[in-house]
Design a protein that fits this description.
- The protein is mostly helical.
- It has one domain.
- It is 34% helix and 0% strand.
- The protein is globular, with a radius of gyration of 13 Å.
């Protein structure tokens, strides 16, 4: 996460759509421990069981996908 330049190439290359960039971002911080993400923070909600949370996690990309 610290070396990401947000170019989107990993998002394009991922065959399972597990990597995505959205408009939501974490603000900068001065402590390294704030940049360490746990599994719960990296998971996205299931689109069928939690559609509202899934749409929020995907941002505007979900509108582009289905339109």
């Amino acid at each position: 996460m610290l070396r990401c330049i947000f170019c989107g190439l990993c998002e394009d290359a991922c065959p399972k759509d597990a990597i995505y960039l959205s408009e939501t971002f974490a603000p900068a911080d001065y402590q390294r421990k704030q940049f360490i993400y746990k599994k719960e923070e990296l998971l996205i909600p299931h689109p069928i069981t939690e559609p509202e949370a899934y749409a929020k996690a995907k941002g505007n990309k979900i509108k582009q996908t289905f339109n």
